[in-house]
Amino acid sequence: MTRSPLFLAALASSAVPGLDPVTVEGVRRGPDDLFEVAYLRDTQDRRWVVRAPVSQAAGAMLEDVTTLGTLLSRRLDVAVPTVRGQVVVPEGRAVVYLRLPGRPLDFSALPPGPLAGEVGRTLARVHNLDHLLYDESGRPAYDAEAHRRRQLSELDRAAATGHVPTALLNRWEDLLEDVSLWRFAPCPIHGSFTGENVLAGFSDDADASSGTVHGVLAWEEARVGDPADDFAELVTLASPDALDSVLEGYAHERHERPDAGLVRRARLAGEMASVRLLLRAVSAGDVHRVDDLAEQLRELDETIEADDRRHADEDAAREERRRAERAEAFAAAEAAAGRSRPESLPDDAPWDATVPHDPFAAPVTGTVATGAVAQGPDDPDGVAAEGDGAVDGAVDLAADGAAEAAPATAAGLGDEGEGVGDRTGAAIPRTDEVAVVDRDDSPFEIDEAEALPPVDDTNTDTDTDTDTDADTDADAAEVRDADGTGDPVVDEHEGASDFVPVRTDGSGDRPARTGAVRGTKKNRGGRRR
Prior knowledge:
By secondary structure, the protein is α+β, with helices and mostly antiparallel strands. The protein has 3 domains: about 5-100, Phosphorylase Kinase, domain 1 (2-Layer Sandwich); about 105-325, Aminoglycoside 3'-phosphotransferase, Chain: A, domain 2, CATH 3.90.1200; about 440-529, no CATH class. It contains 13 helices and 16 strands.
């Protein structure tokens, strides 16, 4: 149905009390437009817009716009249409609202710089809206998987028409089947973020950089979905430099970091825009429009490979610029902090000052200064005793790779009658002997011998069954069981070793289980193992 501008003015006058039109200006409707639009000026010099749907589907889209516009006007710093009145028409409802200031943008002529950045920031503010806002307005919501399946369904329907080239069908199907591309966080989107729906004002008409975004129109397709859908026309029409400015402003304003597949999905949405129009034309029975869209798809099929090469070059150049900007910002921050970048670090490698220790890395060659002892498994605190055990002079740790390092053991420990060496090979005199556990008697495998600290022998219990090892640990404390018999209890902890007294079952393979342990500690004495 085509309504005259005068008829639309009459609808507006009946929808808004006190609206007396003085002039009316009709807007020519395109073949893909869902609404008829007219601009009015009333006796109070107020400017109005009336929008009437051309189909019942378009009328259903307008149902929730009234509530959404009211909520958006309170949360966005740009103007949005706020419905002042509505009137019933056969296709649904016609709405009337005050005309917003500003001029529509042409994304193909969008210059890089402040205006493009403002467009990106405006879009980011829309995507930062609360999901509950759209839910309250009755707008649909699609998560990542639902959105992907929805596009696959559209592709299947388009393939059934026979008007889509096979190469395009295969290309789009491969992209839609790439699950890694569809990992994004759904957010509130505009749904039809095109240049004609973005209004800007200019302080200097001759300077495009002086423009600022004043308003955003046409919220009928607003939903919770893929943020890339709002970039479809931008990535299709805008120049690479202008798109970079848009993305930079968008990323700076966005609460969440944009995902890596945003631009690729936006290009796919731009390519498949003709598919949605084709399905709409087929549904409406518009044969001429179907032929026009089929011709557009054939032209796209012929140029898609060249577009892919151009996009690949643009992406590589964009990534190189971002890398250079990050390196420059990093260097400036380091210079401000009084630090410099290590010369040995490659320019394309990130500098991480907290590289984790690799225990399997090759040993580092170098020298140890006099009296210095490196930290190691047997010296966790890195503390070295001074005096007889100190290293005299610097020692070469590499030794041409032929020398084999001495076992790293604690000072004063070792086999009977043998001297003990430190890490550098220097001999450490033996001190008072302390108990060394016989590994053959241990049911556990241990790498290094540990010992109880030396104790005073004056309080050692004498027992005829005490063996050689018992003489060295006579004063060590021993846990008795609850009945006070003095029998040692079993240590069943996972980290138990020979240094905790256990009772064996005679085989030496496994400790025998005893009665309940109450955890009472008493002075060790009586029998020894």
